[in-house]
Amino acid sequence: MRARSDAVGAAGSSQQRPGRGEGSQIAVIGKAMAVLEVLLALPSGATPSQIAERTGTNRSTAFRLLASLESAGLVDRDADGGRYRLGLGLLRFGDAVRRRLDLVELAEPALVRLRDAVRQSVYLSVRVEWEAVCLHRLAGPEVDVLAWQVGARLPLHVGAGPRALLAAMPDAELERWLRAGGERTTLRGPMSEADLRRVVEETRARGWSLNREDLTAGVASLGAVVRDGAGSPVAAVSIAGLASHYGDAQLPALADAVLAAAAAIAATLAR
């Protein structure tokens, strides 16, 4: 089975359409990204005039963008002040991304064993603010659930991986998430604050999260958090397959497999 679904949109998100002020900020960010893309393509650097021409802005706008990016360490200016290049400050971001790629590499053996054991799709995800991002996905040999692809984001209240990350948040952070509000819905309908607290409490009590057709019709998933040596959550491991495979009698074996994978990854991280 290859289960495709547009349920990600139906599942709801706390994001709302940006207002006028937010829209102008987004436009500025887009222009700044365009400048960085130009410099990425020109390792020898570019002048403000060249950047203005390539980004379709005027020279004064290009200069202001470059000045802001330089102050943030994202671009460097030549000693003579004529040309700009990508800044060494970008290495901080690259290093953060590299560490996540290291996580995928370290987790891969445990994820493969989990996939082979349950014969379902397997996911590795991390939390980014109030969303979960899929870092890695292994297609199930028997059931391949396609609703969550690598790089895609889900709100924390839907899906087993996101719910495992939600339940692992410290209480103070959880309260901030609850206060952030916004419409939080699933295929079954909106979730109240009481519903959300119940999901968190149940997940914490049994040590694993469960989703039954909240995101994709006919599909269920089960997940567990991965913690580092200090006990802090760093990722979530989850599986997804046909809802008919997630009956009460089948859950203990599935949970044991997912928890074993999470523990194996945690042990590898601690070495």
What does this structure look like?
This protein is an alpha+beta fold and 271 residues long. It has 2 domains: 69 residues, Arc Repressor Mutant, subunit A (Orthogonal Bundle), CATH 1.10.10; 177 residues, 2-Layer Sandwich (Beta-Lactamase). It has 9 helices and 12 strands. It has a 6-stranded antiparallel beta sheet, with helices on both faces. Strands 1-6 form a two-stranded parallel sheet. It is elongated, with a radius of gyration of 22 Å. The N terminus is likely disordered.
Any descriptors?
2 domains, Beta-Lactamase, two-stranded parallel sheet, alpha+beta
Summarize the structure.
The protein has 2 domains: 20-88, Orthogonal Bundle (Arc Repressor Mutant, subunit A); 94-270, GAF domain (Beta-Lactamase). 47% of the residues lie in helices and 21% in strands. The protein has 9 helices and 12 strands.
| CATH first level of the largest domain | Alpha Beta
As residue ranges, the low-confidence spans are 1-18
Radius of gyration: 22 Å
The mean pLDDT is 86
Number of strands: 12
CATH topology description of the largest domain: Beta-Lactamase
N- to C-terminal separation?
38 Å
The CATH superfamily of the largest domain appears as GAF domain
Query: Could you say which overall geometry the principal axes of the C-alpha atoms support?
Result: elongated
Order of strands, main sheet, comes to 7-5-4-12-11-10
- Bin the strand percentage: 15-25%
